[in-house]
Amino acid sequence: LAQIAQALVKEAQALGAELEVSMLEIIRNICEVAMDPSHTTEEDTAVALTDAVRDMRPMLDDAFVAYLKYAIAEEEGKLARSGVVDDPEHNRWLFVLKIVQEGVYAELSQGVKRYIDHILYVLRMKSKTERRELLKQLIDVMPTMDVRPFVKVVNNIVSSLGTTVKGDFTDGVILGEMTNQLLQLQRDVGDLLPPERINELSKDADAWAATQRERLLERRNLTRQRIEAGRQTGDIDPDKVIKKPGVEAERFD
Question: Based on C-alpha coordinates, what's the Rg of the chain?
C-alpha cells in the first residue's frame, strides 16, 4: 500500500507540474505581446494586450483563474517571508501576475456582463412562452465560444438561490417573481441545450482551444530543448539549431 501511495503521489506531482507549465505558457504568451517592440505607444500595447487576452478566452477557464490566485498568494507569501514585498528588485514577478490577473478578469467580466444581458432580456418577457422563444433565438445565434459559459452563468445564478429552489427560504435570498422565472430559465436552458447539443455548438471553440493547448505543449518542449542545449554546450543560440513551431497565435472570432 505504501508503494502504491508513493506512486500515486508522484503521479499527482507530475500532473501538477504539467498543469503549471501549461498555465505559465499562457502567461508567457500574454507577456510576449506586452514586450513586442512593434508597439510604440502605451495605447498600442494596451490594444494588443486586450486583443491577445480576448483571443485566448476559451483557455481562460476556472483552472487558469484558480492558478493565478494560487500563484499570486504563493509569491506574496514568499516575498513576505523574506521581507521584500515592496522591493522592486524582488517583486517584479508578483506585479506581472497581478497585471495578467487584472486583464483576465476584465475580459471575463465583459463576457459575464453579456450573458447577464441575455438573461435579463429573456426575463423581461411577460409569458413563459415568450421567454422560452426568445431564449431559443438567442441560443440559435450564440457564438460557439459563448455556449458553455452561458450555461454555467445560468446555473451559477440559480445555485446562488440556495434552498429556495426547493421551496425552503430559510437560508436563501427571496427574489419574488424572479425566482420562478430563473428556475424556468434553467429548465429551458436544459431542454434547449442538452449535453449533446452543447458539444455540437461548442465544437469549434473546443477544437480551437485544443489546438492552442497543443501549441503550448510545443512551446514547452521547445523550452526544454533550449535548456538542454544550454546545459550541453554552455553557450548556444537555440534559434539556429532548433526548429520553431508554426504560427504562435490564431485569431478566433
Answer: 23
At 234, the pLDDT band (50, 70, 90 cuts) reads: low
C-alpha cell belonging to residue 188: 429551458
HSE-CB of 3 using CA atoms within 13 angstroms: 0
Count of C-beta atoms within a 10 Å radius of residue 182? 21
Give the cell for residue 200: 455540437
In angstroms, the CA 97 to CA 189 distance is 36
Question: Do residues 147 and 201 lie in contact, with contact meaning Cβ atoms separated by under 8 Å?
Answer: yes
What is the overall mean pLDDT for the chain? Answer: 79
Residues 26, 49: Cα–Cα separation, whole Å: 13
Angle between helices 147-159 and 177-192 (to 10 degrees): 150
**Residue that the C-alpha cell 459563448 belongs to:** 146
Q: How far is CA 217 from CA 5, 26, 30, 121, 169, in A?
A: 28, 11, 16, 41, 49
Q: Which three cell numbers stand for residue 225?
A: 530543448
pTM of the shown model? 0.65
Strand segments, DSSP code E, in the chain are: none
Task: Measure Cα distances from 72 to 67, 77, 92, 112 in Å.
Answer: 8, 8, 12, 23
C-beta of residue 54 within 8 angstroms of C-beta of residue 35? no
The answer to whether 172 and 164 have CB atoms below 8 angstroms apart is: yes
Contact call for residues 30 and 53 (beta carbons, < 8 A): yes
Residue 179: Cβ within 10 Å count = 18
Q: 99: which 3 cell numbers?
A: 497585471
